[in-house]
């Protein structure tokens, strides 16, 4: 009987330690992955979210390939700026600015579907303004 209670206590402790599968709370900035940075600030790429169905290859908040996300990666931003591919108004690569050119979003959706065989998650940011 003592073994049963000990096992039950250990199992309960394991659930508490594991967090019972709850997702972590969003950061104070409202960006669940912690990728967004202040305008003009130092941008650093966030680690890929292992829960992403695409294996972290796609930046779901911005709707572009993770490695080329000019809004998350300072390296990518510098490369786009060096090529003259930059939207000063929205502080992102012009070729990724769905605000200025909504047709780019449609192209991204087609690229995502071709690569992953399903619909692209709707970006939470980098979206055209509704008319």
Count of helices? 3
The stretches of 5 or more residues where confidence is low (pLDDT under 50) are 20-51
Which structural class should the secondary elements be placed in?
mainly alpha
- Mean of residue pLDDT values: 74
Q: Tell me what portion of residues adopts beta-strand conformation.
A: under 5%
**What value does the Rg take, in angstroms?**
20 Å
Specify the biggest β-sheet: 2 strands, antiparallel
Helix content: 25-40%
Strand tally is 2
Secondary-structure element sequence? HEEHH
Distance between the termini: 68 Å
Strand order of the largest sheet: 1-2
Shape: elongated
Give a structural overview.
With 131 residues, the protein is mainly alpha-helical. It has helices at 2-18, 74-82, 103-116; strands at residues 58-59, 64-65. It has a domain at 52-119. 31% of the residues lie in helices and 3% in strands. A two-stranded antiparallel ribbon has the order 1-2. A hairpin with a 4-residue loop joins strand 1 (58-59) and strand 2 (64-65). The longest helix is centred in the N-terminal third of the chain and has 17 residues, at 2-18. The radius of gyration is 20 Å and the shape is elongated.
């Amino acid at each position: 009987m003592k073994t049963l209670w000990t096992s039950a206590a250990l199992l309960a402790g394991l659930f508490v330690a594991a967090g019972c599968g709850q997702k972590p709370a969003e950061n104070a900035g409202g960006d669940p992955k912690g990728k967004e940075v202040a305008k003009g600030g130092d941008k650093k790429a966030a680690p890929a979210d292992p829960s992403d169905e695409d294996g972290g290859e796609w930046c779901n908040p911005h709707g572009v390939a993770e490695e080329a996300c000019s809004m998350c990666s300072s390296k990518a931003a510098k490369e786009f700026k060096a090529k003259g591919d930059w939207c000063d108004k929205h502080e992102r690569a012009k070729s990724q600015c769905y605000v200025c050119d909504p047709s780019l979003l449609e192209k991204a959706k087609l690229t995502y579907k071709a690569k992953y065989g399903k619909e692209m998650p709707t970006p939470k940011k980098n979206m055209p303004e509704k008319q």
